[in-house]
Structures are given as C-alpha cells and as structure tokens.
Specification:
single chain, mainly alpha, Rhopdopsin 7-helix transmembrane proteins, 10 helices, cell membrane, transducer, GPCR_Rhodpsn_7TM, TAAR
Length: about 350
C-alpha cells in the first residue's frame, strides 16, 4: 500500500507570512503618523473622515459668519457719523476683537484639533499669543461696556461730562495695550522657546503653569465677572425704577419731557440689549474657566477643543444680538448690501 502524503507549510513560508504581516502593520502605523520619518511623531486624529468633514464644514461656516457679521458692524459704525457715540465706539472695539476671533482663532483651532499641525512651532506660539491678546481685549471691552451703561443709567447727569469720546478711545487703547502685556506674561516661555510644551511632532499645545493659570483665572474671569455682575445688578435696579416712572407719567408730559422720556427709553433699551450681551458672554465663557478649576491643564485634554469652540462662539452671537435689538444695525446693513454707502454724503445718513 502506498503511503499518503500530507502537505505541511514549510518553515520558510511561515517566516515570509509573518514578515509580510509585520511589514503591513508597520506601513499602517506609518500612515497613522503625522510625520512618518520621525520617531517622535504624533498620531493623526482618529475621527472618521465623514465626521471630520462635517465638523470642519460646520465650524468653517461659523467662522465665516462670525467674520462677515462683525465686519458689517465695523463698517457700519466706522462709516456713518450718526453712530459715532461713546457706546458704539466700545461696540466697535468689541466687534474688532470678535472679527479677529473668526478670522484667526477659529480657523487655527479647527486646524489644531482636527488634523496634524504642519505650520511649525513658531506659528503655534504666535497663534496662542494672538489668542490670549484677542480674548483679553474682548473681556476688557465687555467690562468697559458695563461701566458705560452703569454711568448712563445710574448717573445720567454726569454721563456727558465723564464719558467722552476722547476718554473712551483712550480706555480702548489701554485695554488693547494691557491685553498685549498680559499675553506676553502668559506666553513668555513659549515665545522664548517655541514648542517647549509639545509632547510629539505634529502637535500645537499650550501648557500653563499653576501660577500663570491661576493669574489668568483671576484676571480674565473672576475679576471681570465680579465687576460685570455688580454693575449690572445696580443697573437692573435703577432701570426697573426708571421704567416704572416712565409708565406712571407717560400720559401727562410736555414736549420737553417727551424728549427726555424718549432718551430714557433709549438708554433703557441699550441697557437691556447689553444685558443680553453680558448673559451670552457668561454662558460661553463660564464652561471653559469652570473646567479649568477641575483640570489645570485644560489645553491638553480632548474635550478642551469643544470648550474652546463654545468660548469662541460668543464672537458669532454678539453681532446677532445687535441685529435683533438695534434697528440702526439692520438699516446700516441695508445701506451696505445695496451699495448706498458708495454714494456721496452717505456717511451722513440718518439711521436712527
């Protein structure tokens, strides 16, 4: 009887199969790296491509809307002379900071959180420096707006003499200058040595020390929020009493008193609008700083990107609030869209 032959894979074939498998795994690992040629490269974000496209599309749209709406605010207040009031100059400064958030910070955060960072360590440090300066300036503008409304509502007889265009412009300049110095304090180590905080290549990271983080929490959140809340509590009490006085005397006033009442209504409406502005500001900023109290190194956590998006989304909501509550903004948009601002004398148009 002939013996039956049984086929067994040779040892050489086993080695080949394992070598091919190892080669495929190494190739796959290299494809997942930001810089395959570097041993200390970061891994690419693991978000599915469809979710990544959707996320980038939504965030890019929000960034575009933020830029366009705040640009309309800037053009409106800059173009029409009737809008050159102290309150509107403060709104103009806030719109500039919001415009820069949409133009620079939002795209930078989209790039930083959804893909590898290919722009280098220097650009990363500059990005965080600009982020600190713009955010600090925005918070300072909110505080200045609160002070402006406090004086207008609680001390109306002194408003015209104390809150002048010259003083407001000087305060805005000091606000932006102070924001620049604060940013240098926060970023001094990263500006001297870019990339010192990153753990691998392809990462853009900012790690604040305990002292720097605590200082940021106090100067950019606790201190300004305390001032804003105290001022608006006082404004709210006075505004309610003035509104009651207007309703009780609305039926028996002279023409002169009617003008005064109309002025008071305008001030109260401005206070209400800016009150909504403050509430939205607190709603967007509180999650980030509240989380900071729990986790000091918030910028190194995956959830930090969502908190930063909410943080920046305030810049998109501000001009929407203007459009809802300020009729002059809607009229100004109409002049801009229909190109009436190109006509001679358009800067003297009456939008009120």
């Amino acid at each position: 009887m002939g013996s039956k032959k049984i086929y067994k894979p040779s040892q050489h074939r086993k080695v080949c199969l394992e070598s091919c498998r190892c080669l495929m795994m190494a190739t796959q690992e290299e494809a997942e790296l930001c810089f395959p040629q570097l041993n200390s490269s970061c891994r690419k974000p693991t978000l599915h491509w469809s979710k990544a496209v959707l996320l980038k599309t939504v965030l890019s749209f929000i960034s575009l809307v933020t830029v366009v709406l705040n640009l309309l605010i800037i053009i409106s207040i800059s173009q029409f002379r009737i809008l050159h009031t102290t309150t509107n100059i403060l709104l103009l400064s806030l719109a500039v900071s919001d415009f820069l958030v949409g133009l620079l910070l939002m795209p930078g955060e989209i790039l930083r959180s959804t893909t590898c960072w290919f722009l280098g360590d220097v650009i990363c440090s500059v990005y965080f420096y600009l982020g600190c300066q713009i955010v600090c300036a925005s918070i300072g503008n909110i505080v200045l707006i609160s002070v402006d409304r406090y004086v207008a509502i609680c001390h109306p007889l002194y408003y015209a003499s104390r809150i002048t265009l010259g003083r407001v412009k000087c305060c805005i300049g000091l606000c932006w200058l102070g924001a620049g110095f604060c940013s240098i304090f926060y970023m001094k180590d990263d500006l001297i040595q870019p990339g010192r905080s990153k753990s691998c290549f392809g990462e853009c990271m900012l790690v604040l020390s305990y002292v720097t983080g605590t200082t940021d929490l106090i100067l950019n959140f606790i201190f300004p929020v305390s001032i804003i809340i105290l001022l608006y509590m006082r404004v709210f009490v006075v505004a309610v009493s003035q509104a009651r006085a207007i309703r009780s005397h609305i039926t028996a006033v002279t023409l002169h008193h009617s003008v005064n009442l109309a002025t008071k209504r305008s001030e109260l409406k401005a206070a209400r609008t800016l009150g909504v502005l403050i509430v939205v500001y607190l709603t967007c900023y509180c999650p980030y700083y509240t989380y900071f109290l729990v986790e000091t190194n918030v910028t190194s956590i995956e959830n930090a990107s969502f908190l930063i998006y909410v943080f920046y989304f305030n810049s998109c909501l501000n001009p929407i609030i203007y459009a809802l509550f300020y009729p002059w903004f809607r009229k100004a948009i109409k002049h801009i869209v229909t190109l009436q601002i190109l006509q001679p004398g358009s800067c003297d148009a009456n939008l009120l």
